[in-house]
Amino acid sequence: MIINSDELDARSAYKLLIGSVTPRAIGWVSTLSSSGIANLAPISFFTVVSRKPPMVSLTIQPRSDGETLKDTLVNIRDTGEFVTNLVTLPQAHHMHRSAAEFDSSCDEFDEVGLVKEACEVVQVPRVKEAPIAFECTLDRIIPVGDVKDHVVWGKVVRFHIRDDLYTENGRIDTGATPTVGRLAAEYTLADNAFITPLTEDVLRARAGRRMHRIDEHPDGWSAVDGADWSPSGATKA
Q: How far is CA 61 from the centre of its chain?
């Protein structure tokens, strides 16, 4: 199948992108409104920009109506601050619930049952249960395309790393962090690791094997096919 991207609308292109670029890291972003209301949202168009200074990138789509800017973007624009929290399996359902389009007047920490933890530099709280969090200050916001997408670059000013995950050599013990990533409209758990080359026996044993589900949905099921899915990365509350 060869598809001309010029012939796709935003919804169709989004389906192909999120089903092909996998797994994607999730930046579970906490922000504060200018009036001090806390917001949480998982952003899966999330990656690292640079090392010195350490910077991260978020790409934020509008709400499911295709027009209204998400609270995350508005809050970052208005306050110049945000926090990215690492999602591990114990927080997965809280993270998923925080993707709902709550009213801007709602404190989403309270809505999904999470505890706030104060940061050192930014006023935004981090998720206490998250094993790693980055305090970030806004570097720039870049409008992209013609569908109200925006790229946000933020400078990491503080790293919060749970003590047991920080090794003597100054690295993260990734084997002790059951990180949750994004597939299309579903999630995946990082529960294996390898370096190459792998043996032929291992390669043969895994050839053609489909990913196994750890929920109760049948093989081949996808939330993208559901009536409530929208190309916004958010769900309706």
A: 12
pTM (predicted TM-score):
0.95
Residue 186 has pLDDT above 70, yes or no: yes
Amino acid 55 reads M
Question: CA nearest 192: which of 183, 181, 204, 208?
Answer: 181
Q: What percent of the chain has pLDDT over 90?
A: 92
Encode the chain in three state secondary structure: CCCCHHHCCHHHHHHHHHHHCCCECCEEEEEECCCCCEEEEEECCEEEEEECCEEEEEEECCCCCCCCCCHHHHHHHHHCEEEEECCEHHHHHHHHHCCECCCCCCCHHHHHCCCEECCCCCCCCEECCCCEEEEEEEEEEEEECCCCEEEEEEEEEEEEECHHHECCCCCECHHHCCEEEECCCCEEECCCCCCCCCCHHHHHHHCCCCCCCCCCCCCCCCHHHCCCCCCCCCECC
Each residue of 128-170: pLDDT tens digit? 999 999 999 999 999 998 889 999 999 999 999 999 999 999 9
Question: Which residue type occupies 25?
Answer: A
Is CATH 1.20.59.10 what the domain over 5-225 is classified as, yes or no? no
**Residue spans per domain, the chain:** 5-225
